[in-house]
Structure to design on (222 residues):
């Protein structure tokens, strides 16, 4: 059965020279299957004697490729497993809305619940974004804003999975990977999740719509 399964692999035995006896190759436990198959294949036929003597003239394909053929049915499973592990690690780094509230990361000291305090911040942001977009055309505007610092921007929430936050308008004073912290003109500080939300802001003569899902993956160090 092994000869039938690896008949195609034998045709690949053409590219690499073994520089020392195959039995001396340092192979990890998960790759021992490849070594066993190679041993079985070369135990029969004209190459048997050369293999057992560790001849440098025996040509074999990379043993890792052989191992890949053996485990071909598990490649997709392995890739999926790694993807799930990465997703799990990301989930551990990102807290849910409930966790944010529990640990107080949505809190803002009461003395800062004052819209007027942040008006100068908004003025500085307008100067900043005007210079940033000075030589940017309309087609590059969205990408430029995606990487821009939005602290100080006047933002309107036009869509949100939390119905009570739709219509919130104010200066964005705190951003995390998953949220915007907005202080409104009535001195209320509200934290709006980016996910499934749509925001609007005005930049010079342009009204710009920002999809919150796109903002989650943006570079926070910009």
């Amino acid at each position: 059965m092994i000869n039938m399964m690896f008949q195609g692999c034998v045709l690949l035995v053409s590219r690499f020279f073994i520089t020392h006896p195959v039995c001396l190759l340092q192979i990890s436990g998960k790759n021992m299957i490849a070594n066993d198959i190679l041993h079985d294949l070369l135990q029969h036929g004209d190459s048997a004697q050369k293999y057992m003597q560790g001849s440098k003239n025996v040509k074999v394909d990379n043993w890792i490729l052989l191992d890949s053929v053996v485990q071909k049915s598990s490649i997709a499973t392995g890739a999926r497993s790694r993807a799930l592990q990465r997703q799990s690690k990301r989930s551990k780094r990102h807290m849910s809305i409930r966790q944010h509230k529990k640990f107080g990361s949505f809190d803002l000291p009461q003395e800062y619940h004052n819209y007027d305090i942040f008006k100068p911040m908004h003025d500085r942001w307008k100067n900043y974004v005007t210079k940033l977009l000075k030589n940017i055309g309309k087609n590059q505007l969205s990408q430029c804003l995606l990487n821009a610092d939005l602290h100080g921007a006047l933002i309107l929430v036009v869509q949100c999975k939390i119905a009570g936050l739709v219509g919130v308008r104010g200066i964005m004073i705190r951003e995390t990977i998953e949220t915007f912290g907005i202080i409104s003109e009535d001195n209320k500080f509200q934290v709006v999740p980016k996910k499934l939300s749509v925001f609007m802001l005005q930049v010079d003569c342009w009204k710009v719509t920002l999809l919150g899902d796109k903002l989650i993956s943006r570079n926070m160090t910009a």
